[in-house]
Amino acid sequence: MAIPGMTKKELAQIAGYTYRRLYDIDRDQPQEKKLFVESEGGKYDLAIFVQRWVDYNVNNEASEVDDLDTVKARHEVVKTQKTELEVARMRGQLIDVQDVKRLWGDIANTVMQNMIHLPSKLAPMLLMQDNAEVIADMIGKEIRAALEEIANTPLPTYAAEESGEESEEGDEEV
Fold first, then answer.
1. Domain boundaries, the chain
2. Terminal CA-to-CA distance of the chain, rounded, Å?
3. % of the chain with per-residue pLDDT over 70
4. Contact by Cβ (8 Å): 129, 135
5. For the purposes of burial, counting CB atoms within 10 Å of the CB of 47, is it exposed (0-12), middle (13-18) or buried (19 or more)?
6. What is the SS3 string spanning the chain?
7. pLDDT (tens digit per residue) in 3-46
8. What is d(CA 140, CA 132) in angstroms, rounded to the nearest whole number?
């Protein structure tokens, strides 16, 4: 006895789903697992639909259980990593990226300001010079002086507080 073919809507009613939902499920399946397999007269094979629908539900249910376990395991890994980061921050082994960007921005600004002032500082000294070695020496000395000034610039207060330098200075005052 041959099983008669059915429409997609009829198959959806048997499955207890809307046609649209089954269409979406079927669309995402590989060709060998498609739910709707055409048979005679433009209808779809009920036997193949039921077999593949059961297979889909069994696999989907098993993967949900695995997914839950996987999600829990990932959650534990993330919690462990978060704790490790917090401990590293408390030990001073880890600092905030925004703080580093702000500090380097301040340092870059200081460098830029010192370099911008070099020409106006050097121009009057170089005006009467005609010896290339003397000019190069004067420029070199001023660049070194500017770089030494940058190197000797104290940390901004927000960076000194985080590194503990200010608290050490505060202890000396007492």
1. 8-86, 97-162
2. 102
3. 83
4. yes
5. exposed
6. CCCCCECHHHHHHHHCCCHHHHHHHHHCCCHHHCCCCECHHHCECHHHHHHHHHHHHHHHHHHHHHHHHHHHHHHHHHHHHHHHHHHHHHCCCCCCHHHHHHHHHHHHHHHHHHHHHHHHHHHHHHCCCCCHHHHHHHHHHHHHHHHHHHHCCCCCHHHHHHHCHHHHHHHHHC
7. 667 888 888 888 888 888 888 888 888 888 888 888 877 888 88
8. 12
**Which positions ≥6 away from 156 have C-beta within 8 Å?**
103, 106
Q: To which residue do tokens 């395991």 refer?
A: 73
118 half-sphere exposure, CB direction, 13 A CA radius: 18
